[in-house]
Write a structure and sequence with these properties.
Keywords: Coiled coil, Signal. This is Peptidase M23. InterPro entries: Cell_wall_metabolism_enzyme, Dup_hybrid_motif, GAT_dom, M23ase_b-sheet_dom. It is a single chain. This protein is an alpha+beta fold. The chain has 2 domains: about 1-200, Helix Hairpins (Orthogonal Bundle), CATH 1.10.287; about 210-395, Glucose Permease (Domain IIA) (Distorted Sandwich). Helix content is about 55%, strand content about 15%. It has helices at about 1-20, 25-115, 115-125, 130-205, 210-230, 245-250; strands at about 285-290, 305, 315, 320-330, 330-340, 345-350, 350-355, 360, 365-370, 380-385, 390. Strands 1, 2, 4, 5, 6, 8, 10 and 11 form an 8-stranded antiparallel beta sheet that branches. Strand 5 and strand 6 (about 345-350) form a beta hairpin. Helix 1 runs antiparallel to helix 2 and helix 2 (about 25-115) packs antiparallel against helix 4 (about 130-205). The longest helix is centred in the first third of the chain and has 91 residues, at about 25-115.
Length: about 400
């Protein structure tokens, strides 16, 4: 709009020059105006295209990072299952060796006694009852040997089943690791694309006023979503429901940011207010923008920015329900978690978010991965705590 107003003003000046200057000068001015308009339009198109390019790569980063996260979880589960199967296999092999040793002792004893020992033993018996006892003894020994042989056969079959399961899991694990390598390569490529896009944007001339407008839009977009969430909470927020029935009834009335009711019941394990000063930070790192420090000459930070390597796991600071999970201008991939008593925690600039709206999360549960989405120049996490619309100093809550 400012561009068109500026051009309109130039056209009016040109019209005025038509009366005050010769036709040759008028034509020259009009040509200059057309060239300027073309240049400004091209610059605006370039800036918009670069912004779209950065946004596209950041959304792709989210997709690839989520896929990599799921693959790594499968690898971890498969490794645990493989370890358990290996342990079972070792136990089965020990049992098999024990059975084999027992059978070998029986056969050795039978061989040492000689083939005719049983018959001679029977013929030496005069009392029929002794003969009967001897026959039962022989029968018992034969059954014992048969039982051992059957146990060995069973152990061999189970051992083969375990070996087959191990081979299958090893192949599955190998496939997962290959998938993981492909995902890592794609992630690296996407990070490179984003870096190049950011360099282009940095090279694109931007006025101080445009940067200020972007920052104002940042605060406005966050305020809008907070308002939407607050209005959806169906006040009062003075007190929590006392019973499970009241909790469920209250939760059914709380819509998500997309106006779809979230029916998942959420009951806090502890009052959020009681955790002040005892919460763990969502990530470990250096705070590069403290709470209430100057963002620019007219704005201050309402949360903190913590520097950390890209891909670092972001943890929820307390149990809660995900109210928002998605893309927000300048904050990039963001998660907002509802706690009790109208408290919320916000996590922005993520490379990827792992939880969907309506999900119940516990304290220290992984919810996202650190990134630089939203057009940030370095990896880090934007973290904020609010009660309603009022920002809180995270340093007074976390230790």
């Amino acid at each position: 709009m400012k561009l068109y107003s500026f051009l309109a003003l130039l056209l009016l000046l040109a019209a005025g020059l038509a009366n005050a200057a010769d036709p040759k000068r008028q034509q020259q001015v009009q040509q200059e105006i057309q060239q300027l308009a073309s240049s400004l339009n091209a610059a605006q198109s370039t800036s918009d295209a670069l912004q779209d390019e950065v946004t596209r790569t950041e959304k792709k980063l989210d997709e690839v990072s989520q896929r990599l996260y799921q693959t790594e979880k499968k690898i971890e589960d498969t490794q645990l299952r493989l370890q358990a199967t290996n342990d079972k296999k070792l136990k089965q092999e020990t049992e098999l060796n024990t059975q084999r040793a027992g059978l070998a002792q029986q056969l050795q004893a039978l061989y040492s006694a000689g083939e005719e020992s049983h018959l001679r033993l029977l013929l030496r018996q005069d009392d029929p009852s002794d003969i009967s006892r001897t026959m039962r003894y022989f029968e018992y020994m034969n059954k014992s040997r048969v039982k051992r042989i059957q146990s060995i056969q069973k152990a061999l079959a189970e051992l083969q089943t375990l070996r087959t399961a191990i081979d299958k899991d090893r192949q599955y694990l190998q496939n997962l690791e290959q998938t993981q390598e492909r995902d890592k390569a794609e992630l690296t490529q996407t990070l490179t694309e984003r870096t190049n896009s950011m360099k282009k944007m940095d090279g694109d001339a931007r006025s101080k006023q445009k940067r200020l407008e972007k920052l104002r839009a940042e605060d406005a977009s966050l305020a809008e979503i907070i308002d939407r969430l607050s209005n959806a909470e169906k006040k009062p927020a003075e007190a929590e429901p006392k019973t499970e029935k009241e909790t469920a009834k209250a939760d059914e009335k709380k819509p998500s940011p997309t106006a779809t009711p979230i029916k998942t019941r959420f009951t806090p394990d502890k009052a959020f207010s009681s955790l002040k000063g005892a919460l763990s930070w969502p990530i470990a790192g250096k705070i590069i923008h403290p709470y209430d420090s100057a963002k620019n000459e007219k704005q201050r930070w309402r949360g903190v920015v913590i520097a950390a390597p890209g891909g670092t796991k972001v943890k929820a600071v307390a149990r809660g329900r995900v109210l928002f999970s998605g893309w927000m201008n300048t904050y990039g991939h963001m998660i907002i978690i509802e706690h009790d008593s109208n408290y919320i925690s916000l996590y922005g600039y993520n490379r990827a978010v792992y939880k969907k709206e309506g999900a119940i999360v516990n304290a220290n549960e992984t919810i996202a991965a650190v990134g630089s989405s939203g057009g940030q120049s370095r990896d880090g996490l934007y973290f904020e705590i609010r009660q309603g619309k009022t920002p809180q100093n995270p340093a007074r809550w976390c230790r």
